[in-house]
């Protein structure tokens, strides 16, 4: 390890690193290097690599021996460039010590500014700058940041809420302001600040039992260690868990010469976005503050000014923009904006500081944006010639399309309301409803169609029945991995968790937000995207994606680029029409049994029940004849809507006892119709009982034991198709046999189809009728023997819900009891029912595809489980070379985009 490089220099128009070195230098360090390389004004400094962080934790929190000399060498470099010296009493140089992980973890890691101010360097700096006020302002900032970050947090001290050293020091500052009647921090005079810093140092010693360090080198190394420590701080750890950032990545440390935005009225600091992150518009957007430092702008201590006149809002329209106040600096910053966008070819989020009229760049990174803005930027950047459409398609997360597909709180009204509570944004979109406090009342009112919001301290798996029918969920406790958050995110339901302002009084059915008291039945509105709670019923707006030209352009590109087809899972003509609007190219799953649920199901369900309770083939056939017209018309209406596209009809799948009436009255009616007594009916019903119905008499097994059931269904499908054909429509029915484990099951069923097919041709006097016979692949054995099955099947459709259930051995209906714990403890990275378990069950799927295509290279293969609408799973389906995915209608656009991304990502790999 001799001379192994642990320290990377940047500054004065060059750097050891580049933007591509994020893994080693962290995002901030890599971009500071890049900005130096392209000649932007970056204060010089150096980055200590993430490898040092790894070393530090592997070697009992010590450093490799090469580190110290390399740091000293780099400091010398900075000193030469600036003509100042660190720790010099005449002409001193100060540093910032900044954390920077591979990907940005906003607010999670620590930074200390003004490192190097001591009783020895202070007088020199005052003499040099002739600005005592500025020096003591910097010093009080150092004391408060350093004691908080280095002396308290990094030492593992966990003070009570509000008792941390930083809070106590802030109170001292408040006292000075109060005593003198000052409004802003900037009102403090040099003398005020000087005295304040003395008080602060005493306070630090009082609270932490240690003197504030008065040696620049101690401060520097203390800061460096604290940054490494902060990687294992509580906040950073829980953030990593939520975002799935691996522990072993580590953070880098950036040590950078300070530039000062707090030397007076010709100095300032600010943040900016190269385009408007809220709308995506190609307009420079940002905020700044005169005579300020570091995070003053985002910390909300003073009202930030708008960067340019265009960005002024009601609250700051009376304050000067940078454009007005320092036009030349603004012009320079605008030029840098252009340069950065051309260089990075993406919207950037910048930090800058102006010291006595000179502009310095302190950070750039790819800016976060909402879905609507992401669409607009991606499309416009393609049109501006900045990026090709392939890149534009990668710029929008498929889940961001949700913003156009879910209702949101009307932004115009929202901005004029003050939230009564704030929590974590756990589930997207907006919702309004009446407060209820128990899952039972949520279920009761919710299923009646009333709009309710379930308000709890926290939720548990026992509350799930009430969470589903609620419009949204609000909890006072819990974080982004709490039960409520996980469940809501899984459903795409609006949810706010950890709302600290909320107190619930279950006994008196009251919810208190600060001093606002609301009772059960009162209306509230949630913004789940931002984590806000409003009193009353704020209207929601749903954006019509068809009105958004960027959305349309994006999906148009997606359709040009993708290879996968996207179908939908629907069983009613209404849903099918909706799915067609969303761009579905066929139905991947039409469940025949759907006609026995929900609206208008009474008649057919009753007939089905008669069939289930029949005791002989003769009885059964008689009842099936009654059922036939319902089936046929149901299938026909959907086939007709899907004119020109394939429709996969799955034969009866669930175990029969699911359809048996649970209530006595229903049973009596059934007995009468069947002309048997209730004891006989009871006997027949008991015969249907199974101890493990999910693996019982269902799917193809029903068709084997009662061929007449298959016969009737196939007849209904083919007759519907024949009639539509004669009416001039183009239909492609695909008959799908569920729950198959052995090829012989399929042979058996295919014979039946063949027989019925001949009959239908004769009846309608046709030579042929396009149709396919295929199967669900949802039992592990079917994957293992897919080569045999492909000898008979004309298509495969992976039923990944059951495949996950049977492959993982996780009951789909009972997973609520343990999944949360699995996710919280990181035992599973994702819910396998949401996202395909690629490294495990994915292998079964891959094997099924390969074996199937070995037998029949043209075999049509798709997926119809829940996973068909999950972006990661869609990409997986692309990679294993399926022909299509199928998902619920509102996820069709998401699948189209994910499919295009999979194709682009694949092309980029080659
Ligand atoms: P974060 O990652 O939380 O944004 P930063 O490391 O960017 O933390 O630093 C916090 C604040 O301090 C930012 O506003 C940044 O611009 C400012 N800052 C960091 N280094 C310097 C420096 N060398 N000179 C002046 N300001 C700095
Ligand atoms: Mg920070
Ligand atoms: Mg920053």
Strand content: 15-25%
Strand order of the largest sheet: 15-25-24-17-18-19-20-16
Total number of β-strand segments?
34
Stretches with pLDDT under 50, minimum 5 residues: none
Question: Which shape, going by the Cα principal axes?
Answer: elongated
Helical stretch count?
Answer: 35
Bound molecules: adenosine-5'-diphosphate, magnesium ion
Radius of gyration: 33 Å
Largest sheet: 8 strands, mixed
Percentage of residues assigned to helices: 40-55%
What is the element layout, followed by pairings?
Layout: E1 7-11, E2 14-15, H1 22-37, E3 45-48, H2 50-58, H3 67-82, E4 85-86, E5 92-93, E6 95-101, E7 111-115, H4 121-129, H5 132-153, H6 165-180, H7 190-208, H8 216-230, H9 234-243, E8 251-257, E9 268-273, E10 285-290, H10 296-299, E11 305-306, H11 322-325, H12 327-344, E12 348-355, E13 358-366, H13 371-383, H14 389-394, H15 402-405, E14 408-409, H16 411-414, E15 421-422, E16 424-427, E17 430-436, H17 439-447, E18 452-456, H18 464-467, E19 472-475, H19 483-491, E20 494-497, E21 502-505, E22 510-513, E23 516-519, E24 523-527, E25 532-535, E26 540-541, H20 549-561, E27 565-569, H21 573-581, E28 587-591, H22 602-613, H23 617-641, E29 646-650, H24 664-674, H25 678-688, H26 700-705, H27 707-726, E30 732-737, H28 743-764, E31 772-777, H29 780-784, H30 786-789, E32 795-798, H31 800-808, H32 819-824, H33 841-855, E33 860-863, H34 871-879, E34 884-887, H35 892-909
Parallel strand pairs: 4-5, 17-18, 18-19, 19-20, 27-28, 27-34, 28-29, 29-30, 30-31, 31-32, 32-33, 33-34
Antiparallel strand pairs: 1-2, 1-3, 3-8, 6-7, 6-8, 9-10, 9-12, 10-11, 12-13, 14-26, 15-25, 16-20, 17-24, 21-22, 22-23, 24-25
The protein binds adenosine-5'-diphosphate (ADP) and magnesium ion (2 copies).
One magnesium ion is lined by residues 351, 363.
């Amino acid at each position: 390890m001799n001379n192994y490089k642990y320290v990377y220099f940047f500054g004065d128009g060059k750097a050891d690193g580049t933007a591509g070195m994020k893994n080693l230098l962290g995002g901030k360090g890599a971009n500071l290097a890049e900005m130096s390389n392209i000649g932007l004004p970056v204060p010089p400094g150096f980055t200590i690599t993430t490898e040092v962080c790894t070393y530090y934790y592997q070697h009992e929190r010590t450093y490799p021996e090469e580190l110290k000399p390399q740091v000293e060498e780099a400091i010398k470099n900075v000193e030469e460039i600036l003509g100042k010296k660190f720790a010099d009493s005449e002409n001193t140089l100060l540093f910032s010590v900044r954390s920077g992980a591979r990907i940005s973890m906003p607010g999670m890691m620590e930074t200390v500014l003004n490192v190097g101010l001591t009783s020895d360097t202070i007088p020199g700096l005052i003499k040099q700058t002739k600005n005592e006020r500025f020096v003591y302002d910097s010093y009080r900032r150092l004391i408060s940041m350093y004691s908080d970050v280095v002396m308290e947090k990094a030492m593992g001290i966990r003070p009570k809420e509000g008792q941390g050293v930083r809070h106590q020091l802030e109170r001292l500052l408040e006292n000075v302001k109060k005593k003198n009647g000052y409004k802003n921090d900037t009102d403090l005079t040099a003398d005020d600040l000087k005295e304040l810093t003395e008080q602060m140092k005493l306070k630090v010693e009082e609270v932490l039992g240690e003197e504030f360090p008065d040696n620049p080198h101690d401060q520097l190394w203390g800061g460096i260690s604290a940054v490494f420590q902060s990687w294992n701080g509580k906040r950073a750890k829980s953030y990593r868990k939520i975002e799935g950032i691996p522990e072993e990545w580590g953070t880098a440390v950036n040590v950078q010469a300070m530039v000062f935005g707090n030397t007076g009225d010709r100095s300032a600091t600010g943040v900016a976005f190269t385009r408007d992150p809220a709308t995506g518009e190609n307009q420079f957007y940002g905020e700044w503050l005169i005579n300020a430092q570091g995070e003053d702008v985002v910390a909300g201590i003073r009202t930030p000014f708008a960067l340019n006149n265009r960005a002024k809002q009601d609250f700051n329209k009376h304050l000067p923009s940078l454009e007005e106040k320092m036009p030349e600096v603004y012009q320079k910053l605008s030029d840098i904006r252009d340069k950065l966008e051309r260089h990075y070819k993406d919207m950037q989020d910048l930090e800058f500081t102006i010291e006595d009229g000179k502009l310095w760049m302190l950070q750039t990174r790819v800016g976060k944006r909402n879905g609507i803005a992401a669409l607009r930027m991606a499309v416009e950047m393609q049109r501006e010639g900045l990026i090709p459409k392939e890149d534009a398609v990668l710029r929008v997360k498929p889940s961001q399309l949700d913003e156009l597909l879910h209702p949101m709180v009307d932004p115009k009204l929202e901005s004029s309301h003050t939230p009564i509570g704030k929590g974590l944004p756990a589930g997207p979109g907006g919702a309004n409803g009446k407060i209820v406090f128990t899952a039972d009342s949520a279920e009761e009112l919710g299923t009646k169609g009333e709009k309710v919001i379930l308000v709890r301290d926290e939720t548990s798996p026992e509350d799930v029945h009430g969470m589903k029918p609620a419009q949204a969920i609000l909890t006072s406790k819990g974080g982004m991995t709490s039960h409520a958050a996980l469940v809501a995110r899984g459903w795409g339901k609006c949810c706010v968790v950890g709302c600290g302002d909320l107190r619930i009084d279950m006994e008196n059915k009251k919810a208190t937000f600060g001093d606002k008291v609301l009772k059960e039945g009162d209306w509230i509105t949630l913004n789940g995207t931002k984590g806000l709670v409003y009193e009353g019923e704020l209207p929601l707006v749903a954006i019509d994606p068809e009105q958004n030209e960027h959305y349309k352009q994006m999906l148009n590109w997606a359709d040009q680029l993708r290879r996968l087809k996207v179908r939908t899972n629907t069983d009613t003509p209404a849903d099918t029409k909706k799915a067609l609007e969303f761009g579905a190219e066929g139905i991947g799953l039409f469940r025949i049994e759907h006609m026995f649920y929900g609206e208008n199901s009474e008649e057919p369900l009753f007939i089905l029940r008669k069939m289930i309770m029949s005791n002989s083939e003769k009885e059964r056939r008689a009842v099936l004849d009654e059922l036939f017209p319902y089936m046929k018309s149901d299938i026909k209406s959907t086939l007709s809507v899907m004119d020109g596209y394939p429709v996969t009809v799955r034969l009866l799948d669930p175990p029969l006892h699911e359809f048996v009436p649970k209530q006595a009255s229903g049973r009596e009616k059934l007995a009468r119709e069947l002309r048997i007594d209730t004891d006989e009916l009871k006997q027949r019903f008991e015969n249907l009982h199974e101890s493990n119905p999910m693996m019982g008499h269902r799917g193809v097994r029903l068709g084997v034991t009662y061929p007449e059931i298959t016969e009737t269904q196939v007849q209904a499908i083919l007759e519907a198709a024949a009639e539509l054909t004669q009416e001039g429509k183009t239909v492609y029915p695909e008959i799908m046999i569920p729950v198959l484990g052995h090829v012989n099951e399929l042979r058996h069923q295919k014979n039946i189809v063949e027989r019925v097919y001949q009959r239908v041709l004769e009846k309608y006097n046709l030579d042929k009728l396009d149709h396919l016979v295929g199967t669900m692949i949802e039992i592990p054995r079917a994957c293992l023997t897919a080569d045999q099955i492909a000898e008979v099947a004309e298509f495969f459709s992976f039923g990944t819900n059951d495949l996950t259930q049977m492959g993982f051995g996780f009951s789909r209906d009972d997973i609520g009891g343990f999944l949360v714990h699995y996710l919280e403890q990181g035992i599973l990275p994702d819910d396998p029912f949401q996202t395909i378990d690629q490294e495990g069950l994915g292998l079964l799927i891959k094997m099924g595809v390969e074996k199937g295509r070995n037998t029949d290279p043209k075999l049509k293969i798709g997926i119809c489980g829940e996973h068909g609408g999950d972006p990661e799973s869609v990409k997986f389906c692309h990679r294993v070379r399926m022909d299509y995915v199928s998902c619920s209608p509102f996820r069709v656009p998401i699948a189209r985009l994910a499919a295009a991304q999979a194709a682009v990502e694949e092309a980029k790999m080659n």
